[in-house]
Design brief:
Strand order of the largest sheet: 3-2-1-4-5-6-7
Distance between the termini: 60 Å
Strand content: 5-15%
């Protein structure tokens, strides 16, 4: 086979993969119709007791907001809960124990997995790709072990990597893992960097200020979540 033929085959395969990614992204293709129905109240993310909920925790304000979000989660609908935590985040570990002791009357077992941070505070952008790669590999290993059914996140840098991994089974046609993203309460007029990326990837993109909906029409406005 000539070099030109190999290049042609590689180009065709790349084009097919890109088209597949385009059509499965929630912001485009078939899943964009699902998101539209969800905003109109015609579609829901169905939960059952045997489903595994993956919660991505950051640190500081992100963790505090997620803990308040989890107070509204019915644990009997997600009997298995997987918490993905940055490897240097001690605060989140303490908060997980608190929220589980308060709401866990159905299943005393939950899981906590640590991942390398995709980017440390103040880390040079030049070295960030290596950190992202380490986080990506570790997250993929966690998903293979636990096979979560839903991802809930609210903005820490690691959540972008987690959501990218969650999309891989959908791209391959193996499993659809809904992604629910809740933008921080502090974001009144603009989205965070994570929000701008996950606006394209999340099945449900929730904001807490009405002004954001006019700029980002895929967003759902739900006030007073945290």
């Amino acid at each position: 086979m000539s070099l030109l033929s190999c290049i042609g085959i590689a180009a065709c395969l790349t084009a097919i993969l890109l088209l597949r990614i385009y059509f499965v992204l929630p912001a485009f293709g078939r899943d964009s119709k699902y998101a539209s129905k969800r905003r109109k109240g015609k579609a829901t993310v169905r939960a059952s007791a045997d489903m595994t909920l993956c919660v991505v925790l950051g640190s500081g304000g992100h963790t505090a907001e997620m803990m308040r979000l989890l107070q509204g989660v019915e644990f009997d609908r997600y009997m298995q809960r997987l918490y993905v935590v940055g490897d240097s985040d001690a605060l989140s570990l303490d908060q997980i124990g608190i929220v589980e002791r308060r709401g866990n009357t159905y299943n005393e077992e939950y899981f906590v997995e640590r991942v390398p941070r995709s980017r440390e505070v103040g880390q040079p952008w030049l070295t960030a790709p290596l950190s992202v790669a380490r986080c990506l590999v570790r997250t993929a290993s966690i998903f293979l072990d636990y096979r979560p059914d839903v991802v809930l996140c609210n903005g820490p840098g690691n959540c972008v990597v987690v959501c990218v991994v969650a999309l891989v089974p959908r791209i391959l046609g193996l499993k659809r893992i809904p992604i629910i993203y809740v933008e921080s309460f502090a974001r009144v007029r603009t989205l965070s960097l994570s929000g701008k990326i996950l606006y394209l990837l999340a099945d449900r993109f929730i904001v807490q200020w009405p002004g954001l909906v006019s700029t980002y029409p895929r967003a759902e406005y739900i006030p007073h979540l945290v």
